[in-house]
């Protein structure tokens, strides 16, 4: 039996606590058996950092002006000098996992603002695979119909490759899971690909992410849609289903372990915030409390 741990990795930049409380509270209630490591920038108040630590998170602080100061020099070579959070997060994750390769077994890389846990995702994962999660169902979720994803793929992978995957489903770069060797391979690809530009445009990471998937399709990659109960991605969904416990469920009534982009559906966002933050009065009180300590409103994921 392996003595290695599982780990959830995320980045927090430019948010006050009430924006991420559903993530933190659901993580605890979902009984996720994993270390929770959050790279936290200097835009986050000391109060929020204390709350995260109190709730079991491992905080790694970094400078928003020089986010890669923590990273080994070899991983920073040839990267553009101007790099935003949607891109540098992959470098932070890669550096951390390389340095802790003997400690961890399975990894979940995740956004923080629009993600909740309903159970432990690691109990549903195959240790030999890497999981990528599809954004929607039907033609709306394909590169042939999603104009923005088509543009990002052309910028990242070229027109010829993008035209070859027009009927393929788009995967969201916000959540990825797998064993440590597969995740490191994926992150190395992301890092190497980011060196191809003098200036990184917003969203290029999404194009690179999907390039990795469809250039390596048929290996140990598992493409997981919303019919599976590991991760639900709601960005392109028009509806959702709840059980009697107000848990979000699959078409076959299984409870999703992770729900991503719940805030894209207004009534579901209201339900999640009520469940994990409190009634409207409590939400307002917390908003006032934490906004008074908000340091910066930089762009964030």
User: CATH topology, what is it called?
Assistant: Spore Coat Polysaccharide Biosynthesis Protein SpsA, Chain A
Please tell me what the overall shape is: globular
Number of strands: 12
- Give the termini distance in whole angstroms: 37 Å
Write out the strand line-up for the largest beta sheet, numbering strands in chain order.
Answer: 3-2-1-4-7-6-8
Plain-language structure description:
The chain is of the alpha/beta class. The chain is 36% helix and 19% strand. The protein has a seven-stranded mixed beta sheet with strand order 3-2-1-4-7-6-8, sandwiched between helices. Strands 5-12-9 form a three-stranded mixed beta sheet. Strands 10-11 form a two-stranded antiparallel sheet. A hairpin with a 5-residue loop joins strand 10 and strand 11. Helix 4 crosses helix 7 and helix 5 crosses helix 8. The chain is globular, with a radius of gyration of 19 Å.
Q: Tags for this entry?
A:
301 residues; alpha/beta; Spore Coat Polysaccharide Biosynthesis Protein SpsA, Chain A; seven-stranded mixed β-sheet; three-stranded mixed β-sheet; 10 helices
Overview in brief:
Helix content is 36%, strand content 19%. It is of the alpha/beta class and 301 residues long. The chain has a seven-stranded mixed β-sheet, sandwiched between helices. The chain has a three-stranded mixed β-sheet with strand order 5-12-9. A two-stranded antiparallel ribbon has the order 10-11.
